[in-house]
């Protein structure tokens, strides 16, 4: 009898229902889909976020200027009109608009980026830079476009 009981007990163990375990893996496919859509949106919208007025910058071989403070961008279009960001500014009001919230003693610390169209009159660019310089701004940077690297051969 002991033999028959042991065989039956083994059979009962085999009949036990298998427990369903919870799925412990994360499905990353929706995450990847959302991230791809966001990447495409940011790639398309990033060029549209450039500063204000469309100007054709002159090409130079100079490198980028590192800055740790938020600069004020002054743009000059091809006709010589002056803009701060996207807002047009008269030449007479340039210092009050640029330095409105900046105390006179802190003006030498604030970087000013001057973006001038390559076809803008030299006189307009020189006047703006001179006006900013006499207003106490010493960190003036003339923004240009970097020229593509050319093979210089042996020269």
In short:
Helices cover 32% and strands 15% of the residues. The chain has 4 helices and 7 strands, in the order H-H-E-E-E-E-H-E-H-E-E.
Q: Would you kindly provide a written description of the structure presented here, covering whatever features stand out?
A:
- The protein is of the alpha/beta class.
- It contains four helices and seven strands, in the order ααββββαβαββ.
- The chain has helices at 2-15, 29-45, 94-98, 122-134; strands spanning 59-60, 72-76, 82-84, 87-89, 112-116, 140-143, 145-146.
- The strands form two sheets. It has a five-stranded mixed β-sheet with strand order 4-3-2-5-6.
- The radius of gyration is 33 Å and the shape is elongated.
- The termini are far apart.
């Amino acid at each position: 009898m002991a033999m028959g009981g042991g065989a039956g007990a083994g059979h009962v163990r085999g009949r036990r229902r298998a427990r369903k375990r919870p799925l412990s893996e994360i499905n990353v496919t929706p995450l990847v889909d959302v991230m791809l859509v966001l990447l495409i949106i940011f790639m398309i919208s990033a060029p549209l976020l450039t500063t204000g007025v469309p100007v054709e910058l002159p090409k130079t071989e100079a490198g980028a200027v590192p800055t740790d403070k938020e600069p004020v961008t002054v743009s000059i279009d091809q006709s010589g009109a002056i803009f701060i960001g996207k807002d047009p500014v008269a030449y007479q009001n340039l210092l009050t608009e640029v330095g409105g919230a900046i105390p006179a003693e802190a003006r030498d610390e604030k970087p000013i980026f001057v973006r001038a169209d390559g076809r803008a009159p030299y006189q307009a660019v020189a006047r703006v830079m001179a006006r900013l310089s006499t207003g106490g701004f010493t960190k003036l940077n003339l923004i240009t476009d970097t020229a593509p690297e050319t093979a210089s051969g042996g020269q």
